Amino acid sequence: MGSLDFAFWDVIPHTSTGTAIADDYDAHIRLAQRLEGLGWHSYFVIEHQNAPQGISAPSVYLTAVARETSRLRLGAMMWQLPFYNPMRLAQEVAMLDQLSRGRVEFGTGIGVHEHEFIRWGVDYYQRAAISEEVLQVVKMAWTQPEVTFQGKYFHFDEAFPHPKPFQQPYPPIWAAVHSDTSVEFAARSNYNIAKNLDTDDVVAGKFDLFRTVWHASGHAGTLPRVFLMRSVHVAPTDEQAHAEAREFLAPGGQRVGGGPIAQTRVGWGSHARGMGADSERADNKARGQTMAQAQRDYEFNIDHGLALVGSPETVIRQLQAGQARMGYDLFCTNHQIGRMPREQVERSIELFGTEVIPAFAGAPVGPR
Q1: How far apart are CA 209 and CA 180, in angstroms?
Q2: 158: buried, middle or exposed (CB in 10 Å: 19+, 13-18, 0-12)?
Q3: Are 331 and 323 in contact (CB under 8 A)?
């Protein structure tokens, strides 16, 4: 059994207005402080633009978290690369790394929802190519005294990026992936890999593909880190945990294609599944079917590993079995399941921190 660290997935919905937003941010920063005390290795948010959930300025928010913690590693999973000037992104993340004294985990991704791109006037179908160029420039800015770059999307003439990151040569880079193409890109680039949403069977295949391509690429050093995010609910007994989770884990309804976004003029874009023509790709259709089934069927979530629910002892066994099968070494817990009441979420977090994490004590922490 390999070593295992724990990350935390924080969901910060845009439901408040006015000064209440500041109160929400303060509450989540206090949560990050508690997670540090309970032994979580890292803390992640996700960037979304034009969406009811997600952080619109992750570097700013994470700087506030960094200044109120001292050991907790932090990042976005992911920063949406196509929406950034790469030089500004490089400097923002490097400054965050300096202010946190080297605790940044740099999660990268291209984005999946077409409407976010339409609303900002960014070509959705060029997002992968734009992202590759952004990441190329970011790494140049972190490692070179000046950057001259002539690309298809960005041009810099003797730019002097400052500051450089605290971590050298730069923070750990993560690729948030779904498709085989993105998995293979991460492996060839020697990036850490992050996954969610798919069933354990699919995830195991993706991680096997990652390791196969990584070894075939002839990289030196150790295998990059492997991250999996799942919904988690812990209670004193299995019966209580399932009773509490059942109401919120599969509530019915439709996450993509409906809701307040569907009522706007732009809506979800050109396709009801929100990914434009890419919605018809085989892997995206399969993932859509998985998510739809998960919304309807509580047992489907449990049987296919989309959620870990039970007593601390049961969740420990589930984690050990999942790690043996899929080979993750950073497991990310999402305790906010649907509209589950805050008190139940907080009790789950406390039980996980006090009884589950210590079962994996002794694993080395920090980037590898």
Answers
A1: 8
A2: exposed
A3: yes
The residue to which tokens 């399932």 are assigned: 242
Residues of the chain with pLDDT under 70: 1-2, 14-17, 252-255, 362-368
The answer to whether 52 and 43 have CB atoms below 8 angstroms apart is no
pLDDT at 257: 76
Give the tokens for residue 142: 């972190």
Structure tokens at 233: 């609910």
- Pick from 106, 105, 107: nearest CA to 42: 105
The dihedral region occupied by 37, where left means phi > 0, alpha psi between -120 and 50, and beta the remainder, is alpha
Query: How many CB atoms lie under 10 A from the CB of residue 361?
Result: 7
Residue 337 neighbours by CB distance under 10 Å: 24
pLDDT tens-digit readout, 309-324: 999 999 999 999 999 9
Q: Are 275 and 327 in contact (CB under 8 A)?
A: no
Q: Which among 2, 154, 178, 1 has a CA at the least distance from the CA of 81?
A: 154
Place of tokens 């929100």: 274
Asked if 42 and 7 count as a contact pair (C-beta separation under 8 A), the reply is yes
Q: How far apart are CA 9 and CA 15, in angstroms?
A: 18
Question: SS3 string of the chain?
Answer: CCCCEEEEECCCECCCCCCHHHHHHHHHHHHHHHHHHHCCCEEEECECCCCCECECCHHHHHHHHHHCCCCCEEEEEEEEHHHCCHHHHHHHHHHHHHHCCCCEEEEEECCCCHHHHHHHCCCHHHHHHHHHHHHHHHHHHHHCCCEEEECCCCEEEEECCCCCCCCCCCCCEEEECCCHHHHHHHHHHCCEEEECCCCHHHHHHHHHHHHHHHHHCCCCCCCCCEEEEEEEEECCCHHHHHHHHHHHHCCCCCCCCCHHHHCCCCCCCCCCCCCHHHHHCHHHHHHHHHHHHHHHCHHHHHHCCCEEEECHHHHHHHHHHHHHHHCCCEEEEECCCCCCCHHHHHHHHHHHHHHHHHHHCCCCCCCC
Nearest of 271, 295, 275, 272 to residue 283 by alpha carbon: 275
Q: What is the pTM of this model?
A: 0.94
